[in-house]
Amino acid sequence: MGETVSFAEVIVDLSSRNTDRVFHYAIPPDYRDKIAVGSMVTVPFGNRHLTGYVVGFGIPPGEVRIKEIAGVIDEGPVFTPELLELARWMAENYLCSTAEAFARILSPRLQVKASRRADVLVYPALAGAEMEKALSLLGRSPKQLAVLQKAAGCPGLTKSELAAAAMTSSKTVDALLKKGLLKVSAVMPAYLQDAPGDMIKTGSLTLNQDQEAALREISASLDRGRFDVFLLHGITGSGKTEVYLRAIAAALETGRQAVALVPEISLTPQMVELFRGRFGGQVAVLHSALSGGERYQEWRRVKEGQASVVLGTRSAVFAPCPRPGLFIIDEEHEPSYKQDDHMRYHAREIALKRAQLAGAVVVLGSATPSLESFSRAVSGGPYKLLKLPRRVDERPLPRVRVIDLRQEIREGNRGIFSRPLLYALNGCLERGGQAILFLNRRGYSTVVVCRECGLVLKCPRCDISLTYHLEGRLRCHYCNHLAVLPGLCPGCGSRYIRHFGAGTQKVEEEARKIFPKARIVRMDSDSTAQKGSHQKILDAFRDGLYDILIGTQMIAKGLDLPGVTLVGVINADTALHMPDFRAAERTFQLLTQVAGRAGRGGLPGEVLIQTYSPEHYSISAAAAHDYEGFYRSEMAVRRVLGYPPFSHLARLLFTHEDEEEVRKGAEKSKELLDRLVSGRNCRVEILGPAPAPLSKIKGHFRWQLVLKGRRRENIKEIIREGLAELERDRRFKVAVNVDINPQ
Ligand code: ADP
Ligand code: ZN
Ligand code: ZN
């Protein structure tokens, strides 16, 4: 390839800097075949070795002494040309360095040491009649039988997934591996590839007309191999997942790969089972709970084209598919798609950009689309709207009643449960039905308040309200600071300081008192701290071992619990009163999702929403299952206040250990930005500075500036210039973090 190939242009990861510089390194002869554009290397830099990314080849200018590349990480390039381009776009759009973008795309960091090939997926070692025989011989060991049946039905689960699916421990799986009835492999063994089994069964549903129509449009775009975006607006229980699965099959048929993203909470073993049941060993699962080694294995399988279906959470959007043809984002409105520290990317935005670069199709799915997405899918917007307005099998949507808690108080009921909810619970239990009681946020209303002076007890380090737990203990949910409930108010000495309102524990306590015979279980991050216990509780509830499930939003999303006929929302206002312009949208989304949990089986469902603001449109529209009504009301509000989607926001977050320093830093930045704005005469508004909603975290004070403007370009330019100027200022010691369109 000639002399030019002896020098590589390398972007070195200098994690401290905001800017990029390309450095030249000589390529030692041994590495000449191994290094390509997109390779990850280690290079000497100063007296250290750092990570670098090869972005090109060329002759170094001038007579600087050129050092040699010290090592190559991974075989071949770690970035496809599309991902290299994506990194440049991220640097430009999230105002970070390309090196940072590279690191984020590979995040979780490529596990250098994990390059040993370990086979991770479990398959039955037999098929057909031999399998039948093996199963019949296992009669006396029900656990092993269950595992083998699962493995036959869903070939290609990992060991722990298989154990969980068969409700046993991985010891049972090991026993079967030892007996030779199961085997591990990286890809589906040939003898299973045309074995029918459950794999066909799960794919044999007949689509209804709406699903059929949606699939037809998506498939047509896939066949054309063109960048297209669909918004699949389907009510809860309308069968969106089946459309995703068929669309993935269609993408595979065109010889390309598919990436499906789900929110963290939806990535359950059932979801994995569903995908593996349909696509077997072609599925790679990527999420943050995997160990570094496992993650690397899956990453390699994707990169080498062995796994053409990726199922994962947020960061799986960076999956290194050689030729991605389809990106699916389920529950596209979920805030968990936004990365919340360092580089604050949004997985939806990344998927859209990748699809544009690769000529792929994007399917955004939701029962309650974000206003940003829905507004692009109506009135001639660039997205195509696909609707699934009915539940499968014409199951009715549950009846929703709004209960005015003010009325209850006026009539002397100060309890957690309104009388209509008590009545409904009673009826539900008598009929042998199951109920879910939902409280928006764990601990949100277990703040400790002095009823005399109104003082709220807060964490001394984080400025977050402390939460009351059993045994008089208080806890900060950010830094885990623990305190003891004081006997007297530290502000006024009153005795009337107590935890106020209801948390999930309190709801559980009350429910047990009122319904002593009911079998009650609570699910929140306290009761599910142990890995896997979340799933155990849900399985037991689904199997009918409990009558009432009490929980936080953890139980609101994506669960299919056919026995549930009653859903009670203890207090809808907790979401409504958050300090966020999306509070109404979040309230509507939460209520819709919670309501969607009722009546998914054969029985009709009922939903009761308790609130002090029954007239608020987010609550009345959710009760009427009226997304479009909510959309119109909320768009009117956003238009008047100039919030997204009518504008773009950016947040500059300033942090420092010294409060005075942060305040001064934020004020100085405000002056600087104001000057830049008036100099350019562009329409960008700068709000603040103000202490951030969480004004102190782990000993660091936080202030913020919010920029608001119609054009994202303008905001970015102002920030870019402002940051450059601050970086040149040696006296400016405050850390600044940029968040474009914060969630
Ligand atoms: P959504 O994600 O839209 O809330 P799901 O995809 O969870 O809905 O579907 C709800 C249930 O309906 C699932 O149990 C699914 O297997 C089933 N289902 C989906 N499509 C069909 C169909 N065409 N016929 C019968 N059942 C279906
Ligand atoms: Zn007091
Ligand atoms: Zn704290």
TrEMBL record:
GO MF entries: 3'-5' DNA helicase activity; ATP binding; ATP hydrolysis activity; DNA binding; zinc ion binding
Domain of life: Bacteria
Residue span(s) of domain Helicase ATP-binding: 221-387
Reactions listed under catalytic activity: ATP + H2O = ADP + phosphate + H(+); Couples ATP hydrolysis with the unwinding of duplex DNA by translocating in the 3'-5' direction
Isomerase in keyword set: yes
Listed EC numbers: 5.6.2.4
Domain Helicase C-terminal: 484-638
Keyword field: ATP-binding, DNA replication, DNA-binding, Helicase, Hydrolase, Isomerase, Metal-binding, Nucleotide-binding, Primosome, Zinc
Record bears the keyword ATP-binding: yes
GO terms classed as biological process: DNA recombination; DNA replication initiation; DNA replication, synthesis of primer; double-strand break repair
Annotated binding of Zn(2+) 1, by residue: 450, 453, 489, 492
Cofactor: Zn(2+)
Residues annotated as binding Zn(2+) 2: 459, 462, 476, 479
One Pfam family this sequence matches: Zn_ribbon_PriA
UniProt remark on cofactor binding: Binds 2 zinc ions per subunit.
One annotated Gene Ontology cellular component of this protein: primosome complex
NCBIfam families xrefs: priA, PRK05580.1-3
Similarity remark: Belongs to the helicase family. PriA subfamily.
Oligomeric and partner information: Component of the replication restart primosome.
Function, in words: Initiates the restart of stalled replication forks, which reloads the replicative helicase on sites other than the origin of replication. Recognizes and binds to abandoned replication forks and remodels them to uncover a helicase loading site. Promotes assembly of the primosome at these replication forks.
Protein name: Replication restart protein PriA
